């Protein structure tokens, strides 16, 4: 399927957040994402070169709504880690600064920040267990571990040598959030810890992106639940997506350092479609899709970023966001259609 845009009309468009005449009807571009086989798609937006091309909501939803991030939050957490690396306060290949792991003889002392970012720390974390309610993630997020999520995640032993295998884990990203908090403050007061994290996140990430409506959730100890629980409007998802595309904020300034962005988008040694808390080419189903770096979340939250030559023969940067509530067994079809929409925006490679 091909979905061509009326590209000559781009000059009439306004920046994200303004009154936005569309270069093509949302029904022409985004309607495949609202088809019956897509589950509960609640909103979608397409950005080209910083301008809204199409935006559509299911009935009952609008820019006034905030949508749960689920695991798209992981990529945002990695961006904040990158800010501290750029500041010289964290080092990618040094032992992760978790004091609990630094006791003599503890094999977890060999876990580095790179291992955590690549989901290869080797910790005994079970993302989806059997029964599902017994999985580490569900217990920590919703049952017995809500007060001290990071402590629960940090306390787990190794089940593999650091760097030996890939294992996707929301608890791993909670550890990254805790590292950010401990780097920013020595306080053990939950409110002070949460404030330090929130202030830093808005100063270095969300405000430069123009995403001032973001709401961060924290556990009882003041640790940001950076693997799962951030709330954003549909336009704010796109604004954060712009940082993943080229690292640039709303005013065009560089927010994410190019070398850190390159790290996030480089395939990890143990999982070629995963970089630094970022999915790579997850939507390549037919071979026609462009190279896509994306933020993916439970129940079908997707922020796709990619570049390609448009119908006008020029190179463009795209951000395609879809938020919804689609059960797991239907997501393969959602991802296929997301890839088809992306492919329809760019010309095939020579």
Structure description:
- It is a single chain.
- The protein is built from ten helices and nine strands.
- Helix 2 (72-86) packs across helix 7.
- 31% of the residues lie in helices and 14% in strands.
- Residues 1-23 have low confidence and may be disordered.
- With 350 residues, the protein is of the alpha+beta class.
- Strands 2-1-9-8-7-6 form a six-stranded antiparallel sheet, sandwiched between helices. It has a three-stranded antiparallel sheet with strand order 3-5-4.
Keywords for this structure?
single chain, 350 residues, alpha+beta, six-stranded antiparallel beta sheet, three-stranded antiparallel beta sheet, 10 helices
Query: Count the strands?
Result: 9
| Low-confidence runs | 1-23
Q: What is the rounded distance between the termini? A: 19 Å
Quote the average pLDDT: 90
Number of helical stretches of at least 4 residues: 10
The SS-based structural class is alpha+beta
- Could you state the order of secondary-structure elements as H and E? HEEEHHHHHHEEHHEEEEH
Strand content: 5-15%
Q: What is the gyration radius calculated from CA atoms?
A: 20 Å
């Amino acid at each position: 399927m091909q979905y061509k845009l009326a590209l000559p009309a781009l000059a009439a468009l306004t920046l994200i957040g303004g009154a936005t005449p569309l270069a093509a009807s949302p029904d022409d571009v985004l309607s495949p994402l609202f088809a019956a086989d897509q589950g509960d798609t609640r909103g979608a937006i397409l950005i080209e070169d910083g301008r809204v091309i199409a935006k559509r909501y299911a009935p009952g939803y609008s820019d006034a709504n905030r949508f749960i991030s689920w695991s798209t939050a992981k990529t945002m957490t990695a961006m904040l880690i990158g800010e501290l690396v750029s500041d010289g306060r964290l080092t990618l290949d040094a032992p992760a600064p978790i004091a609990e792991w630094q006791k003599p003889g503890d094999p977890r002392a060999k876990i580095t920040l790179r291992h955590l970012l690549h989901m290869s720390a080797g910790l005994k974390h079970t993302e989806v267990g059997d029964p599902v309610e017994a999985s580490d993630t569900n217990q920590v997020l919703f049952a017995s571990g809500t007060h001290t999520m990071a402590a629960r995640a940090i306390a787990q032993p190794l089940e593999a040598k650091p760097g030996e295998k890939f294992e996707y884990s929301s608890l791993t990203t909670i550890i990254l959030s805790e590292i950010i908090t401990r780097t920013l403050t020595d306080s053990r007061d939950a409110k002070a810890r949460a404030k330090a994290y929130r202030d830093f996140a808005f100063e270095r990430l969300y405000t430069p992106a123009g995403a001032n409506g973001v709401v961060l959730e924290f556990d009882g100890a003041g640790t940001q639940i950076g693997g799962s629980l951030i709330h954003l409007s549909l336009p704010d998802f796109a604004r954060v997506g712009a940082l993943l595309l080229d690292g640039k904020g709303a005013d065009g300034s560089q927010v994410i350092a190019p070398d850190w962005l390159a790290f996030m988008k480089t395939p990890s040694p143990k999982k070629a479609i995963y970089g630094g808390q970022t999915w790579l080419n997850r939507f390549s189903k037919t071979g026609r899709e462009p190279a896509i770096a994306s933020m993916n979340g439970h129940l079908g939250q997707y922020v796709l970023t990619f570049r390609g030559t448009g119908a006008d023969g020029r190179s463009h940067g795209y951000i395609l966001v879809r938020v919804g509530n689609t059960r797991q067994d239907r997501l393969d079809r959602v991802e296929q259609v997301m890839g088809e929409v992306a492919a329809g925006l760019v010309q095939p490679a020579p």
